[in-house]
Amino acid sequence: MNFSVILLTQQFITVCLFYTSFAQLHVVDIPNQGKIQGIEISKVRIQKIIAYYGIPYAQPPIGNRRFAPPETNPLPDWSDIKNNTDYQPSCLQVREDYKASELPFLTLLTDMEFPSNISEDCLYLNVFVPTGPPPQGFATIIWIHPGNFTTGMPSIWNPHTLVYRQRVIVVTFAWRLNIMGFFTTTDGEAPGNYGLMDQQAAMQWVKNNIKYFGGNPDNICVMGYGTGATSIGIHMINAESRNLFNRAIIMSSSLFQPSAYRYPEEDVPLIERVAKDFGCLRKPTSLLIDCLRRADANQLVQQTSNINWRPLIDKDLSNSTSAFLSEPPKNYFDRGEFAKIPILTGYTNMEHGLEFGEWDNNTVFSHETLEQLLTELISGDLPNINNTESSCSYNFDLLVDSVMFFYGPACPNYTADSFRKIATSFLVEKTYAASTIQMANYLSKDQPVYVYRFDMKPSSKVANKELPDWIKVPHLFDLTYVWGLPYWKPDQQEWDPRDKRIADTVMSFWTSFAKTSDPTQNTIYAIKWDAYSKDKPGLLIMDNNIYMSDIKSVNYKAFEFWNDYYPKVYQVAIDCCGSSDSSSAVAFDWVLHFTFACQLLYTF
After folding, report:
1. Is the peptide bond before 135 cis (omega within 30 degrees of 0)?
2. Which residues pair with 540 in a beta bridge?
């Protein structure tokens, strides 16, 4: 044989062996499931991470598994090497359920139409791993996406920047949403909260299997935003969930708001409507749920669009499974029944800002208009009032008076700007800030807690072109930096270098916390971030100058108003009802005295 032919043959064999061994490096054998081939994803050739797409963490929730807890014993298995090159479908949802205020940020993530690539068979997760694992194993971040419990998909969150630049494992996954995730028949036939159970099943899978991907099962941090963050708060009090993670990053959560959950009786009219729409017998519920399991899944989601789906208080709904959330979350925290772990938590300074951008700057408003606005903004508290058993008429005016007193301007200045300031401050402090501080107060007794407020508006036109000039950081826009969006696209020129530097800082803080429980440990940034305590309630203000808060930068009185004062006013409003009962009279007298003290201490 010709020598050159022999040489070429040897080279060919060497190349084949190299690529075969290289491919085998990225094959993971998952016990009781099968082998999966990881694929390289890279930017500018050398920035490589390994992606394992579409790993099933539960049986497909179809047929008799619809409206049922996820089935994980046994897990789906396969014989050949699974070689997925992209995401599996996300869970069913409709475009109409995406809020208009969310779209400016979501369009930064992806150019695709919403929703895309969806299916009822959607319980899959994705594992993204840096190359060259450290001896002790990588820290792992499990991402629970936002979306009001009705929308959201893992495919729009590009993990490359976090994984490559910060050397952590990132796990994303889909979980059942809307009617598919939270429908109940108010009994054991369909107890609800399947979406939360899916999240728990995904976390359990990570706990059991992340070591096979180079992760440390004792160094797992869950990270969530909005309803994803609220979900984490629920997992912190669920007895089966709380041991599945070691740290938590909780962003823009409203866990302690009454609107964060609902009671089964609130769904009775919905059950009647769904039964009628799909031609099902209402009772017995065994026939109802059997009928709905045979209904078209897409039609079920379409017909129940725009419903305010939320986790259920599911006590006594089932004899076969334990309740996932037996009572309001605050009750658990009051009793100390929660995962005592380090947390990093915070909110943006204009969470609901995009919902007020339509006002005409030349319009002059009135005291009556402000009162009407604030009345509408607290109307979400009404369902809990109406569900109480008392037959008296409730003093809702007392609630309105309290918020008008606290948030009304010191002098009559009713302009669009003043209204925006009042409305945005009201909603941020009521919905997100107070809940954040309340959680910090609970957890900081036992573990380090780091609190922030994000005030830093992106500098790049591509990021803020849909934002009015008066808006700073609305809901979701801080994720621009957490996920390193300035590094996502190959053409980096559209992003201002300042945004890249900020992204590096934020990603470093978040991942340092995920690794060590301290956001500033082993970072190159000389920024002081003090742990929060009730005696020293410091927040890191993330603006152009990152600094610890003081009484000039944070309205601490608002936290006291929503966490301490307003609940007492609320209780007086629903208990007193004009009664001559002495305890009610004492409570009402307390409110009057507290209001007078608040007037002396608070300056708008």
Report:
1. no
2. 452, 548
Q: How far apart are CA 404 and CA 372, in angstroms?
A: 10
Residue 534 and residue 441 in contact, taking contact as beta carbons nearer than 8 Å: yes
Question: Is the distance from CB of 410 to CB of 604 less than 8 angstroms?
Answer: yes
In angstroms, the CA 269 to CA 249 distance is 36
* Neighbouring C-beta atoms of residue 344, cutoff 10 Å: 26
C-alpha torsion sign, points 529, 533, 536, 540: positive
Q: Is pLDDT above 80 for 111?
A: no
Distance (Å, whole) CA 18 – CA 593: 79
Contact of 219 with 515, CB cutoff 8 Å: yes
pLDDT greater at residue 348 or residue 22: 348
DSSP letter for 169, please. Answer: E
Say whether 280 sits in a helix, a strand or coil.
coil
| Strand bridging mode 540-542 / 449-454 | parallel
Joined tokens for residue 414: 């009713």
Q: What is the pLDDT of residue 491?
A: 63
The CA distance from 533 to 443, in Å, is 9
pLDDT of residue 389: 46
Q: Which two tokens stand for residue 121?
A: 């068979």
Rounded Cα distance, 468 and 32, in Å: 53
The per-residue pLDDT for 296 is 97
Q: Are 168 and 140 in contact (CB under 8 A)?
A: yes
Please give the single-letter amino acid code of residue 138: F
Q: To the nearest whole percent, how much of the chain has pLDDT over 70? A: 85
Handedness of CA 95, 100, 104, 105 (dihedral sign): negative
**The token pair that represents 238 in the structure block:** 């669920």
Beta bridge partner(s), residue 343: 248, 449
pLDDT, tens only, 273-283: 999 999 999 99
